[in-house]
Description:
7 helices, 7-stranded antiparallel sheet, alpha+beta, 301 residues, 5-stranded antiparallel sheet, 18% strand
Amino acid sequence: MSTTVQTFPASLGEVLASADAAVTNPDVTRTRANITVGQALEAEEREAVRRSVDAQFPVVSAFLADSERPAAHPVSDDDTGHFPFCAPGLCVERRTADSTFTEHSSAPATLPVPAGMSGTGPLLSAELYANSESVGVSFGFDAGGEGVALDSAGAARVIESVADFLEHMRALHAQMLEGASPKLTAWVRDLEAYVEGEADPRAAYAEVADAIHAKRRCQAYAWCIERGEHDDHQGVALEVTVPGGESPYVNARLLAFEKRSEVIGFCESDLTPGQARQEAAKLREFADRLEGLAAVAEAGR
Length: 301
């Protein structure tokens, strides 16, 4: 892992804005005190020439851009200059017009992104890196795409922080397991005792699993009251009965049959949502008229 930082001159607009701020407010210093207006003008001219070359001679521009990048060549795994941490195939030799140097890298340690979390790269990664032109080994640490090169002391602090984090996570996980409801904990203990007490624990466990599956709620419709395996679905019944009556004179419920869309079972008919609304309007009209009859009966007393 290597990082090259190149500082570019400030733009003319930045220099002029900085100078203007310094004039209006003596306490403000220029953003880049070592860049003069003349230097900014020169940089602007160079940038204009570069853009012109890019536009008129794209092939030449691409060639010049490629020639500025250090060429990378894999270093043989048998090379004597490797560090003990070097991983096969990861070390490269880079050549520029002025120098040749070797980058040595270890295999990265990675923490993948948990399932359900956005992102494709590792959540955390770390690796060792050394450059033949520099002294010492760096500890590269990356979190979410932003990395830093650490010395030995810095790496030790990160390791200590990660260790504390893991210890805290383990404590939280233990509390999570202990947080199960007392009823569930007691049920699990009884289940374990039952399975272990059977002559064939494996068969006993399968029997329990089948029984639980048979009581499982419908996975297709939240309103379905059926349990276990079923193809036909039905919801809770809405019923109206007369005082003292045994069977309802009006009833309705949601229904869904295999390979068919949902319908409303109304009395002895299966209605579409539109038809169900029409019947609801009739019932509202009937209820209003029933209220009217009650009013007439009361007035005639």
